[in-house]
Amino acid sequence: MTPVERSNALESNIIALPNLLISSSSEGGDRSVKGMPVPSKKLGGLSNKIRSVSKIMDELQRDLMQERWDLVEGYPTQLRSYVPVFTAYTDSAFPTEIPTDKGLRVALRYEVGRFFASLERFRQAANRKSLDEAYVAYSDMSLHLDRYLRVGGLYTFYDSTVSLEDYYSGVADSSLVYADPKKDPALVRDLVVLVKGPEKGRTGIVIGIYPDGSEARAVKLDRYRGIREVRVVPAEWAAKRLGEQDPDDVFLIPQSG
């Protein structure tokens, strides 16, 4: 199974999970889910702590793409310190034994497990200063964190749109200014526009290229309401934007210290 197929399969399962596990129970009351999971309100500051990991990941992207290995080597330890936070949120956000909560806890534990497994691969790649391997590991970290945020009800918005293609059905491809992805494929750090698929027209940056023969691109979409979603798409879906472009916003984050 290619990265795109694996991503789509997991994506489908995650999107379906909340709606498949609707349940009412005297324990915890009616916790039915419509569109997005609804975490327990008794979370203290855990939600904001989990969201703060996204900021760390943005800073890591900046330093990795600038090949600041002296800074990159400190991120694995910093991110591993959040293990108790993820554990506490998973157990506190969906605490009951009704099927909805149990299913969401399983999904969240899976995503956090994959996140930290990818982090270990990233640490090893960074130690070797293997840039391409580090990009792929970072892409997997970003993908699993994005899914954790979505499944955990930590998105700051819910977009029920299934496909954006209809919005672009009357727009000539020539009006979307981009390079032919077959003749001039997008590389890591390139700013891209999705030219095919359900999110055609959305923009972002390539953060990794999978070396398994699929050449799938991991794309970190531009920020929307504070959230940067991550997608794994076929290479021909991600086309380099042409003309003068603003830099990806991670490069506008000032260096701390």
Description:
The chain is an alpha+beta fold. It is 42% helix and 9% strand. The chain contains seven helices and five strands. The protein has helices at 3-20, 46-65, 69-72, 75-80, 83-93, 99-127, 131-151, and strands at 191-194, 203-209, 217-221, 230-233, 238-240. The chain has a five-stranded antiparallel β-sheet. A hairpin with a 7-residue loop joins strand 2 and strand 3. The longest helix is centred in the middle third of the chain and has 29 residues, at 99-127.
Mean pLDDT: 84
Alpha-carbon distance between the termini? 44 Å
Shape: globular
Structural class, from secondary structure content?
A: alpha+beta
Query: What quaternary form is this?
Result: single chain
Q: What fraction of residues sit in β-strands?
A: 5-15%
Write down the secondary-structure element order: HHHHHHHEEEEE
Would you spell out the secondary-structure blueprint of this structure?
Blueprint: H1 3-20, H2 46-65, H3 69-72, H4 75-80, H5 83-93, H6 99-127, H7 131-151, E1 191-194, E2 203-209, E3 217-221, E4 230-233, E5 238-240
Antiparallel strand pairs: 1-2, 1-5, 2-3, 3-4
Helix pairs in contact: 1-6, 2-5, 2-7, 5-6, 6-7
